[in-house]
């Protein structure tokens, strides 16, 4: 098959017109099965600073899997990881190669799958390119940096018939799988409302007032890829991009996506909420971060109310202390109130409780330790149906994060009274607001100087995957993001 090379890619990009191009004369329309139980599946890992480095060990440790390439635009990190790999696995230069540019990796015909753990803004484009090049994909959460590009990932997976797994590993957790079966069977009665939360504590990322130099060992063009090569306005180049909109999607899509994906799984959704409103702000920190550190959204999946509650401040004067807040008896996870019981589930397990608060069943889990193996097994079977977290579901769970972010970004500064009035339709939303106010008081937040931002109630059209009705124009500005040539996702993948 014709592979993506830098020369071919640039030629196609120059020739592209009207936002679309002819895709590669490409991979077989049948899923390429791995070379058999006795042959290795050869894997490349892109983005190896933190989570990706963990994936190197996870995949290398699976029977019949060989990590053969590492991709990273930071030369220092790449050199360090290559040296660590060679020492740990006692292999030479021929066994593992390093690359700065993912296109050079995709040119290799001997690589079966790409594991993507880059910053968020690269996830979608890299997945599309990999599918076009005939590779299977394991892509970290959040799968996309915008709603539109997430759909393009699904389209590419279908068009080239690739196995594409989402890195929401709790899909492979026995506790979530068992609880999902119980809830969907009606064991606890009808679901009445849900509270989904991640109440952690982070520190400020600090503040710089002038652009910071990009370290010489980082190829900023390749690091930025489809995103703007904007001046770097943060003290730490790596990781803190999470809290700046050009590259990251805040805590909502960093940690919140895990529990929103659990919720999608637990309730057996085949789509996303269709109404939402959000409030919050970046309180207490005068830093270069742009995403909210106190953020909650009241959403409706048809008639079912869901509160999504994401906080990054500590709770110094109440339960939780410097570890973050405690609400509904937990710091994180899903609280699903049914007619006859509630299910409370976080990473690793949880339980069902009767309406008097007595535990009636324990759900034991492992956080999804078999998730990487599930991806490899699906490559071997050639069946995307065998995936625990196939890209369609991963896209939908990530859309919920984008909906909550957009509902906030479309807002304006307002008073607490107006936030309270906007949330009055649901008791848990009001309780969440009051709990947040107590926590912010413990952080000496002056709401006259740092007011809430409240977004308008939005209506989302599931079929069109965009907002409709009142305030749609304001919200739809965020449904896609800009791209920088030649790192562009085209309309036709």
TrEMBL record:
SUPFAM superfamilies: Glyceraldehyde-3-phosphate dehydrogenase-like, C-terminal domain, NAD(P)-binding Rossmann-fold domains. Keywords: Coiled coil. Pfam families: GFO_IDH_MocA, GFO_IDH_MocA_C2. Residues 209-312 form the Gfo/Idh/MocA-like oxidoreductase bacterial type C-terminal domain. Residues 416-443 form a coiled coil. It comes from the Bacteria. This is Gfo/Idh/MocA family oxidoreductase.
